[in-house]
Amino acid sequence: MSVKGDAVTASGTGHVDGERLRDRIAVELARARARTTLLTEVVDDADLMRQHSPLMSPLVWDLAHVGNQEELWLVRDVGGREPVRCDIDELYDAFKQPRRDRPALPLLPPAEARAYLGTVRDKVHDLLDAVAFTDRPLVADGFAFGMIVQHEQQHDETMLATHQLRSGPAVLHAPSPPEPSVRVGGEVLVPAGEFTMGTDTDPWALDNERPAHRVDLPAYVIDAAPVTNGEFAAFIAEDGYGDQRWWSPAGWAHRLREGLEAPMHWRRDGDEWSYQRFGRWGRVRADEPVVHVCFYEAQAYAAWAGKRLPTEAEWEKAARWDPATGRSRRYPWGDDDPTEAHANLGQRHLRPAPVGAYPAGVSPLGVHQLIGDVWEWTSSTFDGHPGFTAFPYREYSEVFFGGDYRVLRGGSFGTDRSACRGTFRNWDYPIRRQIFSGFRCARDARPDESYR
Ligand SMILES: [Fe+2]
Known about the structure:
alpha+beta, Four Helix Bundle (Hemerythrin (Met), subunit A), paralog of FGE (formylglycine-generating enzyme), 2 domains, four-stranded mixed beta sheet, three-stranded antiparallel beta sheet, 11 helices, 12 strands, 31% helix, globular, binds fe (ii) ion
């Protein structure tokens, strides 16, 4: 079922549609909470309170922060109800508390944090039973509920990244992703012309995905698949990390400062490479998309390969534009929500799937695995689409515009389908690689290619 099909438009808040929307919200809230519970119950209290990396919060901070945001937006703003606990608002304000300082805060202990989340969720269920989905922007189409579902799922992905950084025996288990069923490789030509970027119609799309607008691009060529471990290992073998020619000045300075020699979590294993995945070591698999590389590493690889990173608009056109109809789809495969057959999402597997594993997820132009597996670095800095309006608050997106952030697209194996669309935009500093980040390359089309 698609979000669109389920959504209630502001003009059509009929009783039946309202009930369907209520049911859908309840299902999505429960799915997010089940994942939060799993990620915070597989480790003991000491582990929850510990900071596994200065880049990350203790898991117990994320836990109570999820509840606090739910209280602020749903219980207080949408519901107009009495606060559950306003004494902790400051502690769980991501803007006031930098990650590195969070372990020193007087955080709620795990049992208290869980009880708090339970109390807030009970109130949200009360509210959901009674709420009228009027055209008030915060409640039209259940937007604030959708925002809170996505927020919790995004923190679940962050908590999954924290799990990848923790030491100790493996506590997370999942089946292997599917094996390749088609051969995928090479490049795809995207003809010159306009397409629609962003959205006006996806009811739970966030402010930075809006509005829909036309973008005209010259012809370009984009990789049919994300760059694989095997391809990245060739870059390492040819001394890609040691050759300054491939690196931007900022990237080279960062590489030297941090001593980067391979993707995060890789180590040499004789002539080959091994990587660590959630507490387990294994041989690097050549046909899997490379993950845990920063923007600078992606940029250097692309230069070495004689290419470049795609712009954000190039990524989105390759993912959404349907040459047969001229319209932009919600996802590469169409407008329907992702299923297991389309993409590797939602922590169903604990690693990217090999290239060729998701033929049903291919875009109309023949580009594979744009959604799921790994977030893909683009060359674009994070900014508002033309006509951007901050909603529901500037801190959601706008305060990050114009900074040193690069946009990542498409979601990873750790991204839930509720927080992943063809228009969804993620952003991070170019040095970050504890996230599930990979990339694909692009290049300008040559004249002989563009006029074919
Ligand atoms: Fe947050």
